[in-house]
Structure formats: C-alpha cells, structure tokens
Amino acid sequence: MKECVLLVLLALCSAKPLFHPSRVMLKDMMLEDTEDMEDGDATSLLPMKEPVNPFFPFDLLPACPFGCQCYSRVVHCSDLGLSSIPSNIPFDTQMVDLQNNKIKEIKENDFKGLTSLYALILNNNKLTKIHPKAFLTTKKLKRLYLSHNQLSEIPLNLPKSLAELRIHDNKVKKIQKETFKGMNALHVLEMSANPLDSNGIEPGAFEGMTVFHIRIAEAKLTSIPKELPSTLLELHLDYNKISTVELEDFKRYKDLQRLGLGNNRIADVENGSLANIPRIREIHLENNKLKKVPAGLQELKYLQIIFLHSNSITKVGVNDFCPTMSKMKKSLYTAISLFHNPVKYWEVQPATFRCVLSRMSVQLGNFRK
User: Fold this and answer.
1) 183: in domain
2) Predicted model pTM
C-alpha cells in the first residue's frame, strides 16, 4: 500500500501544467493583482510597485497618447479634436497621423526625439505657425502633409530628407529663395489652392533641386513659371489665369512627360513652344479659349493623350496630329478629345487620325452653344 501511495505522489510531482499562460494573460493577472492591492489587501504577498512577472514588467510596454491608436510604430490620432501635438509619442514612431484636428501651432519640442519619423500627416487642422526648429531632430522625415490649413508661408528649415511635401489649400503667397535650400531629395511638391501669383516665386527659389512632380493648380498664375526645376517630369497648372503659351516657357523642361494647363484662359500657343518638350506624353488644354489646334503636335513622337475639348476650335487639318509619311511616330495616340468645339466633324478627313490606336480613341461632336 505504501508503495502505491509513493508512486502516486511521484506522478503528481512530475506532471506538467495543463497550459502555459500567454503574455496577454500575464498582463491581465498583473492588473488584477494591482487592483487587489489598491483595495487594501494587506495579506498580499506581492509589493505594490513590483510586477508579478519579472520577465514582463510594465515599463517595457509601449506608451501611446491618450485616445490614439498605436501599433507597428504607427500612431493614429486623427479626428480627436486635439488642440496641440500629443506629448508622449513613442520615440521609435515612424508615422504620425494627426489629421482632422484643431491644432493651431507646432512648437519647438513637439517632435523632439522622434529620430525615426518617416511620415507626418497634419491635413485639415488650423495651423498658422510652425516653429523654425520644430523639425530639427526629424532627420529621416520623407513625407510631410500640411494641406487644408491656414499657413501663410512654407515653413523654414524643413528636413533636408523630405521627398514629398503637400501644402495644398493654405494661404501661401510667396516662395522665397531660402525656402527649399538644401532640399535636394524633394521629388513631389503639391501646393495648389494657394493665392500664389506669377511674381510670388523668387528667382533661384528652386536652384539645385531635383523635383519630378509639381502641382500649382487653383492659384493666381498668369503665366507659366520659367524657373522651376529642370528635372520636372510632371507639371500641373490647371485652374489658373494663364492666357498664352510663349516660346520660352518650356525651354527649361526638356524631360517633361505630363503637362496640365486645363481650365485657364489660353487663346494662343506660340509656334515652336511645344518643340521644347520632345518627350511629352500627355497634354491637357481643355476648357481654354483656343481657336485652332496648337501647332507642333505632329512633331511630338511620344505624345499619346491630348485633351482639347471645350475650346473654340473651328477646323481640324489633316496634319494637325500626325506626322507626314516620311516621319515615324514612336507612340500612337490613345486619346484625342475635341468635343464641345464648333468644329464641323463631318468635314474632318479620315487620314487626320491615321496615327491613332483605334477609332474609340477619338472623341468628336457633342458641341453645345
């Protein structure tokens, strides 16, 4: 009998537990123990300021600003009615989303220590002021979104690492010469819907920069800026007050591939001006005051899309779009729009569109007075 009892005791002592508690369960257990101690449990064997499990202490848990959601080095604090930048953003954060709040100012130390910050979203706030040293430690910041605020100027001393800056719909009237100094990595600049006129861009403001995409739509430009970066691949100037395209306008932008000039007041495209952008693939000239198809389109070997609808074009010539037989076009047209023009489309010769991909690529007719 004694031998049987000994065997049973040995079996119980060597038996494995039924489950291993996860870290989440350990955390819950720690919280319960802490609550018990706060209720005055003097018999507790654990001191109040020490964690239950020494391998998972509280001070290793990542901090997160109140009301925000934090995960994978991303801090989401949008739509919370915040009036200032949260003070306890984890130092290893790579993206901070603060859009749709009521933040009016960014102070000097608001982002201090966020050396890993990659993207900062501040769209749709009430920003009027950004301290010149606010981005002093964010040396890895690549994307900065400041659209839909009340900034009267582009912030000074922005990180030299910026690749994308969006400051759409603010109150910027001027681009100073020192604004983008040293920002050689900036590739995308979106600053539409600002009261910027043609005299608001100081000479040399973009000197030495390598920018591929610039959009200054819905502004007050009366002419095409001539001192933008020569590296441009896309230039969008829609919804301005530009009245003419001059011969000198595109001489600086030899590599331009997309050009947006829709919804302006353009009545004339000077002969030879389009020859300066031989690599262009897409041109938007819709909703202007053109009376004829711009000269030089047939010389653009890579042009695939040309929008000319809603103008005052009355005639389309047989060689307006396609080169003569002795010349070759590298890319066929995929879209030519001529609708809402007073052109007699039944008089247009079929050979006019001999370099078009298919008949579905051409849109004619539908003119309404």
Assistant:
1) no
2) 0.80
- 77 within a domain of the structure (yes/no): yes
DSSP states along 309-366:
-SS------TTSSS--TTS--SS-BSEEE--SS---GGGS-GGGGTTBS-GGGEE---
Taking only the tens place, the pLDDT of each residue in 32-48 is: 443 443 444 433 323 33
Over pLDDT 70: what percentage of the chain? 82
Tokens of residue 295, six digits: 């000269």
Beta strands per DSSP E along 152-225: 164-166, 188-190, 213-215
φ and ψ at 337, to 5 degrees? -110, 125
Is pLDDT above 80 for 366?
no
Domain count, the chain: 1
The answer for residues whose C-beta is within 8 angstroms of residue 99's C-beta and 6 or more apart is 78, 79, 121, 122, 123, 124, 125, 145
What distance in Å separates the CA atoms of residue 29 and residue 34, rounded to the nearest whole number? 9
Would you call 14 helix, strand, or coil by DSSP? Answer: helix
Which helix (H) or strand (E) segment holds residue 184: the answer is none
Q: At which residue do the structure tokens 């595109």 appear? A: 250
Residue 70 domain boundaries: 62-164
Whether residue 7 is contained in a domain is answered as no
